[in-house]
TrEMBL record, chains A, B:
InterPro entries: DNA_Rcmb_RecR, Rcmb_RecR, Rcmb_RecR_Znf, TOPRIM_dom, TOPRIM_RecR
Upper classification of the organism: Bacteria, Bacillati, Actinomycetota, Actinomycetes, Bifidobacteriales
HAMAP family on file: RecR (MF_00017)
Record's protein name: Recombination protein RecR
GO biological process assignments: DNA recombination; DNA repair
Organism expressing this protein natively: Bombiscardovia coagulans
Length: 200, 200
């Protein structure tokens, strides 16, 4: 009795089941969808994966994902170089860009402090942030971390660390539902939180 | 202001967003997961996709997915060749195999009759089923379609079509929650439904 699929099918299912947010049933559905899909569509997916992995890097300045380092935002002469918005992940940069309320630069930490997951300050791009602030060009740092326990811990850590510097520290206005992920905030809510940001 | 990601990243997100069960947010999460993942893991996923698509075909007899046609089930001399279990999709074969209650063969229709989606009897592997039944070897056909409107319509259509033949027609016992997909039934429920199958 065959209790697993033939090798290549099972391997395809297993590969998708390892991705975040996809359970075993979802992986099976995707696998069968691909097996029945147009060959070109399937090849396009495989190519998109390898191409992105080959082309995409992290910006040496801000840590955002990009195809060229420094990234287009860091290189853009129209952006306000006196303000840096600190976020956890590259996707948060995109969320804030969508509000069209922000003209400064970014700094992507690559996560948040999370003792449960063994992520401490030294695992985040904090030294790079300090180095950027030492240039003296920056007058404000906006902390735009996720409004959850880890984000709050990171905001607290950063405000203590950056407090001695002569830089205005602000954070996104409350208004974001607590316990949620920044990426799920709609553009209007996030835009208002940005406009009404308060000093720490 | 960058309102879309750099080309390769956006293309990766879009490719995943096209897959069933993955929304735009889920696609973004997967894309960033892959961009941060080990290069080998990412290559393995791309390879699993292309390998499966290249290797996997549909069994010329039963329509199940397999790497060799006829498939291992159709070729297995220990299976009872007098019974054919008709299912909608290859994943349903796996669901029934997992019950360990069934020793016969399968016939995968490739879907169910669904006028709303423009899927009629001619879009399903029904002629191939009739051809298999004409050999005279088969004494029972078990209809194991999804217990929803489309599955019921297909069961009704098949019972009328196969009625004139000298073959016992059965269907899975009720007990499966109506309106659900067969693939979500747990193994015990599905096993009991199979054991207690009734004549149509
Ligand atoms: Zn940058
Ligand atoms: Zn077969």
């Amino acid at each position: 009795m065959a209790l697993a699929y033939d090798g290549a099918i099972q391997q395809l299912i297993d590969s998708f089941a390892r991705l975040p947010g996809i359970g075993p049933k979802g992986a099976q559905r995707i696998a069968f969808y691909l097996l029945g899909a147009d060959a070109q569509e399937v090849q396009d997916l495989a190519d998109a994966i390898t191409t992105a992995k080959a082309k995409v890097r992290f910006c040496e300045i801000c840590g955002n994902v990009c195809e060229t380092s420094p990234c287009p935002i860091c290189e853009d002469p129209r952006r306000d170089r006196a303000v840096i918005c600190v976020v956890e992940e590259p996707k948060d940069v995109m969320s804030i860009e969508r509000t069209r309320e922000y003209r400064g630069l970014y700094h992507v930490l690559g996560g948040a402090i999370n003792p449960m997951a063994n992520i401490g300050p030294s695992d985040l791009r904090i030294p790079n942030l300090l180095k950027r602030l030492k240039s003296g060009e920056v007058t404000e740092v906006i902390m735009a971390l996720d409004p959850n326990i880890e984000g709050e811990a990171t905001t607290t850590y950063l405000s203590r660390l950056l407090g001695p510097l002569e830089i205005k520290l602000t954070r996104l206005a409350s208004g974001l539902p607590v316990g949620s992920d920044l990426e799920y905030a709609d553009e209007i809510t996030l835009g208002r939180a940005l406009t009404g940001r308060s000093e720490v």
